Fold these 3 entries.
Entry 1:
Amino acid sequence: MNRYPLWKYAILLVALLIGTLYTLPNLFPDAPAVQVSSGKVTIKVDTALVGRVETVLQQAGIKADFVQFDGNSVKARFGDTDTQLKAKDAINKALNPDANEPGYIVALNLLSRSPQWLSSLHANPMYLGLDLRGGVHFLMQVDMKAALTKKAEALTGDARTMLRDKNIRHAGISRDGNTVNIAFRDVEQRTAATDVLKNQLPDVIWTPLDEGSELRLSGTLNPKAQLAVQEAAVKQNITTLHNRVNELGVSEPVIQQQGVDRVVVQLPGVQDSAKAQDIIGRTATLELRMVDDGSEALEALKGNGPVPFGTERFIDRGFGPIIVKRQVVLTGDALIDAQTGFDENHQPSVDLTLDAKGARIFKDLTRENVGKRMAIILFEKGKGEVVTAPVIRGEIPNGRVKISGAMTTQDANDTALLLRAGSLAAPMEIIESRTIGPSLGKENIEKGIASVTWGFAAVAAFMCVYYLLFGVFSSLALGFNLLLLIAALSLMQATLSLPGIAAIALVLGMAIDSNVLINERVREELRGGESPQQAIRLGYERAWATILDSNVTTLIAGVSLLVFGSGPIKGFAVVHCLGILTSMFSSVVFSRGLVNLWYGRQKKLKSVSIGQVWKPEPEATDVAAKA
């Protein structure tokens, strides 16, 4: 009657093993480490850097637990913080001989002491939030005025192009703050321009102005469009910061909008605030300029003369110095995407996609400069480097640009990555900087673990005293639930914070409710005169509907927090929702498996250990009255 088939026990055993395996890494503490990442987008970090770091440490007499390459950076783990600091100084001195122009970022970090065999099984610990692991917190403010100014500059160029395409004459276009001013000599041309601009730039309010003999057309963005520009600027900055930080290998960074014009950046595990500022400040900008291949430029490259007026000298990656004109044709804002591909000769290439404005400019540029070279320059911290300088083979009308030539597939991948690095839509300023030390994080972890442990112990003690052996089964199911929850969070590589620990403690209290419902239902069936085996079966079956209803309604509230919440609220909601799902499985399936294993094979079961079953007193019969 109360027996599980063998396959159900096999499922429970597999779940128990997987839960144990993926929970284990969380039992190992963090160790001090040094992280080496690229200080420039033009410098690539690969496995060869592992050997260089090992050599440096060996020469300095410093022993590391291991040095490994994790895809974006090289990390070395050490036994104590003193060795960590010595290693950082030695590595920084060796890899960055010029302190004014470092090629690598050498930062303090933390790594788990989890054994390598667990890591090989992809069993990794949960990420810990800033409040548990320590790290750096920045509050950055976006310069919204600069974003609107940048948009006004773009509108100025768009208006000039549109009027030229329609052959509408004007006396000059200028920008005054965020207002575009167009001067005209007669009313007819201004009227024609107003019709064109209102039709093609609907987000701009165009107002005719007459000041004496001067005819002007003034254009400003409407309030809705201004708000859209500001929102887009914040979103683009967040995306750019994500790309930069993710490429540096910082585990689970938090980069999110706060308010209208502020962005929160949290880098857990990073202990060096100055280096963290360097990380988030590394946002590159792109410019497209024409190469000067004139005789004066060639003589300047040979060292026989000065750089021609209106040009600059740059370094072309892999090819040496190059002379480029100062006039900027396009910026990185016009670049939508950059991917690797192959040209018509099946050679590696970089495929660029430009926006509508960039496509128009690029069409004119390529038509007028066939056979000449253009340079794509990457600027970082005020210093520029030529990524590539291809020859223009013909007019490119649709904004789909293919760059090919003497490059390997890896070169094409690297170039596409550099071009995708992006630029900030508006300047940002750090208005708040805060460092949380690992000691404070350790204290938070200890207090959090203590709260969960004591809560679990109190619940288990009550259940064992009140429900006896069934209380033991319920406590084991509660432990199984905790094991599954931590394993699920580890598998998802979720970030655990203090609100998440609070959610775990809450889940323990909620999970035991299901077992209380089951145990009381079994008691009720026993009071009703059912046999012990029948009472167990009916107790689990009839309690299931109530358990499902209560958990589904709680899950709806958790999903609402997950969808509409942010930051700590979302972290709480993730643990809360997962805990509800694991508790339904553990309290019903796992606890019944234990009960079936203990009582299921006893055919003549006379009683069960479930505490005192209070049976109602029989109603008294008034015999005398009947007589």
Entry 2:
Amino acid sequence: MRRRALLALVGVVVAIIVTSVTGLVLQGKDEAGAGPQTQLLIDGPTPPAPVPDDGPAEGQVEGTPEETARTYLSDWATGDYESMRELVDEPPADFAAQHRQLDDALSAQVVRLKPGKVTKTGEQTAEMRFTGARKLAGYDGAWDFASTLRLAVRDLSWKVLWTPAVMHPDLAEGGELVRIDEPVPATRFVTKEGRAFPHESYAEPYLAELGTRIPQPPSGTEVGWTIELRNPAQRPRVLLEKKAAASEGTKTTVEAFTQAAAARALDPVQQAAIVAVRASTGEVAAVADRLGGREAFTGKYAPGSTFKTVTAAALLDGGLSADSQVPCPATYTIPNGRTINNYQEKDHGSVTLQQAYALSCNTTFARLAVQLVSADRLMEQAAALGFGTSLATGVGGTCGSLNRPENPDALAEASFGQGTVEASTLCMASVAAAVQSGAWHPPRLLPADVAERIEGHAPPASVPLNDTVVAGLRSLMSAVTTEGTAAGSELPEGVSGKTGTAEDWQGGPDHAWFIGYKGDLAFAVFVKHGGTGRNAAVPIAARFLRAL
């Protein structure tokens, strides 16, 4: 009797309200009563209100299917699952849990319910079509659905014949709706122009390392998801999906065309690397590495005669000029020390400093270093060109290193890039860049602020070079390609550089180097155990530069 009176009262209230509005808006509150969580709309045709009386006659059916259906939807709107359960014939024990689990699984909330017209399907059966909508996390609109409430008389009252299809029309007994969220995407790195890296760029280890160092997108980053229907004995079916917006990617300093040219220049070669740097900024324009790992940035090898660029800078700063006459004998014996040999023990007699550099005279640079350059001065000049510097590239890496020469033998060896001198390919590219631009700029693979955040320290400051030193070095490097060890090669016009052949202190074949610049693009080519710089490194540089 109390249930019948409640149904009658609901009918009266609804009838009164619809005389002035088209529907009823119900608001749910959170557990703390802090305010509405959502607005759920119940509208549609309203049946005539029954007139309350003292109760049904003996054997008379209590209420109407309209009353039961509308009360059921009203309870659903407010999340009153226990009241809904009372209106269901033989409800499952987990009736309320099934509703909660479905919404939790979808990260969803029912936001609209709209009843339709009740149709009698028999003496004691009826059905009501209704529509609804759920709001899903991460979905701009509402996910509409339509289902049917089937009703029947049970124990002289109208009851809902409930199945999971009431919650969603495609849901079967034992089935479930599952939301599959895509994982937060890893940071995608692109070139300076915003393009994908070229195929087989040989920069993959650097991009992988960036991915481990750059924080992943925050938890609020919009991702894709799929709503999947999983019914027993049926194949899973996608009902709704949202594709994650394609990431524009995080830009590096790498230039797409320059990177492609570097990679293709290395295709025929194993155990080699190219690093190209914009001389005016220090931005890494290309890094193609077939040495394994990130050796072009982190691996350090004897730079051989390319280090004569550093020694020449100290000599020029000390008063020599490119035209200064210097001896280039086949051998030079350090007073009370070891004997230094030229390559193939060639004797070039008296030459200019420019010619000695272009011909790569070991004896000249060993003698001048011992006589004119102190150990401290060589260390200072190397530091000005990045040696001993921890670089903030974004993927780690160092420039180069050398121990302070403690005797003339060690100073002579260091003067032409042997002994304790070591450098990375990146380091020597930055040395060439300093000659072109007139200042040493710390090389970097990412925007400066991003690289600093990743490395945990600010990038080293740029170091301007003496104008006289820069002019002299440019003259020396130009002579290498016009009259020196790289002359007559396939290098394009306008390239300045320095070859290098370095002994492997572990006893393997010599390493080959070539550093240089053309316009604002400086570069270093390194071939591990490649032999001479002229034969192994220069052809790679020629392929690279001719492709630009």
Entry 3:
Amino acid sequence: MKTKLKLILGLLTTFSLLTGCDDQFDEINTNKVDPTTLAPSFVMNKAIIDATYLDGFGTLQMLCYEFGIVQQIITPYGSSLAGANYNQNNVSNTPLVWQNFYRNVLKQIVDVVEKTKEDANRTNLYHSARIWKAYSFMILTDTYGDIPYTEAAKGYISEITSPKYDAQEAIYKDILKELDEASAALDATKAIETTDILYGGNVAKWKKLGYSLMLRAAMRLTKVDPTTARTYVTKAVTGGVMQSNDDNSVMRHTALYNNWIANHLQAREKTNFYLTAPFVNYLKTNNDPRLGSIAVRYVGAKGGPEQVASRASTDPKVQIGMPMGYDNVTVSTPAVLTQFGVASLWDFTQVNLNTVLKLDAPEFHVTHSQTQLLLAEAAVRGWVTGNAADYYAKGIRANMEQMAAYDATAAIKEDAIQAYLAAHPFDTAKALELINTQYWVSSFLNGPELFANFRRSGFPTLSKNPYPASEITEDFIRRMPYPDSETIVNQQNVNAAIARQGPNTLSTRVWWDKK
């Protein structure tokens, strides 16, 4: 009896499912929580955010390489922190820019370009994405040289999983073309993207970013193709570059969305990184008021736990930068400590974590200050009209005024700015050195740009890092090697790039870095 009853109930249930329960089948089986598509404007924002200090892990590449190569920030420690401090190839850190930009930034931005290029309602988003794509590729090719470009980030779109490497010369010429076309095509009369995290959809500011970035890219070619450089410098100035700090390309941070370098240095690396002697001494010697905004020294500290507020001094007179060429053992010998007048390695000057590297400190990508200094050099070369000395002074002023964006306590007073400019007039006989040394100061904390302009210009004049176990054949590191993962998954194209460019080492120069 029970068996018959179960059979009847089963048949009734099946009949009910077949006849009465399909009315809302599609609705019931549709996931209303997980999205199946993303608005291109939000993907664009993700690409901008992912480029911020190259993410938490990419931060280590700047701290261990770019900052150390240009001798602004150094660590005496080795192991996972080895890099420019020892002039060695740390295969854990040299691939980090590559990994972040290809896996994250370019994957996002190429997708935005592809999805908007034929959308008449999103032309401004399309052209803004082209500008950010150019910026991202500049960082990659400046860091590694020949890289995947025309076939890059096409894995999801075109199933290209082994992209060819393009020569840097071809990459730069296309970047300049893209910046030219995209900047000119931006149109304030058309739809804007109010959710844009960088400029809130302000087309005029995106134009200025595009043309200022074009100026930067053009000036990269001063040693290898001055004709092309001059052509695009002229185009950039005609189009309209940044005119004030309000035009700066800046990523703002909050207590919840932190500045990556600040986060890194306020946590596990707090006692490991120090301002260098060359950088501190330059600022001290020239009575540069920016030193008071940038630096802090925990006077007399004999260990990490003694780096406390009661010892903290921002007085420029007491700052002592860490010398190049030492490790944590050799820098701690009595002779060295006595020579530099410090109690221990923890007594050297560091970046101020309450001003330029507090957790919500902004990150600057392209600035009015940098732009004015590049115009000063272009004026010296006769490529733009205007007075090089005026551009030079405006560039210094803009960076000093930029200090206020970090924190009120970092702001530099007007009388201090005027006093510095009066004491450091432009000298035509030393024009390129003066301009590019100021660019070095102006670009503080912008690792990729510091590294690139130092190689391009040859300034500031720095002494070779004397650490005895150097692996490089040049005086300074010239590029980052390709990741080992590339030789595994894309070996044929890697080998073609190496054959064209030179050995996959820290000493090989990229195309525009001509001796």
